[in-house]
Design a protein that fits this description.
The protein is an alpha/beta fold and 234 residues long. It has nine helices and eight strands. It has a single domain (12-233), classed as 3-Layer(aba) Sandwich (Rossmann fold). Helices cover 48% and strands 15% of the residues. The strands form two sheets. The chain has a five-stranded parallel beta sheet, sandwiched between helices. It has a three-stranded antiparallel beta sheet with strand order 3-4-5, with helices on one face. Helix 1 (24-35) packs across helix 9 (216-233), helix 2 (42-55) crosses helix 5 and helix 7 (159-170) packs across helix 8 (178-194). The longest helix has 18 residues, at 216-233.
């Protein structure tokens, strides 16, 4: 009696968007690892180019200066969900890009159209090269970077929960009181949602998941189920 050959799941491109503190990074990495997909943190790329600007004397408050330097740094992103890496001109910047100086300037740098065009090109190339598929997280993946992604997910959470999560991430480093963190997140949301080029927005065909009352495991399982459904339908 012959048995049917086992077929590999179809390659799938998943875009996960949402503001800070909604669980994007943890969810995206876990989903990619569970399904054997690659993973890309697009926010790290914008942080990396911001880090380069700050360390090379570029006035990040001057959009023209930022635009003229946008093509200069060489940015390489690793896509292993277990150990995502990022380097600039051959230097590992995984740690430095998470500092407060970069955090406070990344919105301004990432709002410059030339920067977004450069980084978007990198992101699309990485997604296209992922043979088995990839989970790409960011703020404009479903609307701008990968509008034809197989699955688009938009994560949300209440302001209070987002602030608590962000402070948990910063514990022992640069954590402040919740009210201050919540205000900082609100400013970042306004900057990201209000920029002219590729603003933070939910794609019309994205599945919205409110993570406020869910554990990370529950969010991951929800997204994994959605991905598997899309793979079966292809």
């Amino acid at each position: 009696m012959e048995t049917a050959a086992r077929t590999e799941p179809a390659a799938v491109i998943v875009g996960i968007d949402g503001p800070a503190g909604t669980g994007k990074s943890s969810t995206s990495k876990a989903v990619a690892a569970k399904l054997g997909l690659r993973y890309l943190d697009t926010g790290a790329q914008y942080r990396a180019i911001t880090w380069w600007m700050l360390n090379n004397g570029i006035d990040v408050a001057d959009p023209a200066a930022v635009a003229s330097a946008a093509d200069k740094p060489s940015i390489v992103s690793g896509t292993d969900p277990a150990a995502p890496a990022i380097s600039v001109d051959g230097v590992d910047v995984s740690g430095p890009i998470r500092g407060q100086e970069v955090t406070s300037h990344v919105s301004a740098v990432s709002a410059v159209p030339e920067v977004r065009a450069r980084i978007t090109e990198l992101q699309r190339a990485i997604a296209a090269a992922a043979e088995r598929g990839i989970v790409v997280e960011g703020r404009d993946i479903g609307t701008t970077v990968l509008p034809h992604a197989d699955l688009k997910v938009f994560l949300t959470a209440s302001p209070e929960v987002r602030a608590a999560r962000r402070n948990g991430e910063l514990k022992g480093k640069e954590a402040v009181d919740l009210a201050t963190t919540q205000a900082a997140l609100a400013r970042r949301d306004a900057a990201d949602s209000g920029r002219t080029t590729a603003p933070l927005a939910k794609a019309e065909d994205a599945v919205e998941v409110d993570t406020s009352e869910l554990t990370l495991e529950q969010v991951v399982e929800c997204v994994v189920t959605l991905v598997e459904e899309r793979q079966r339908d292809r």
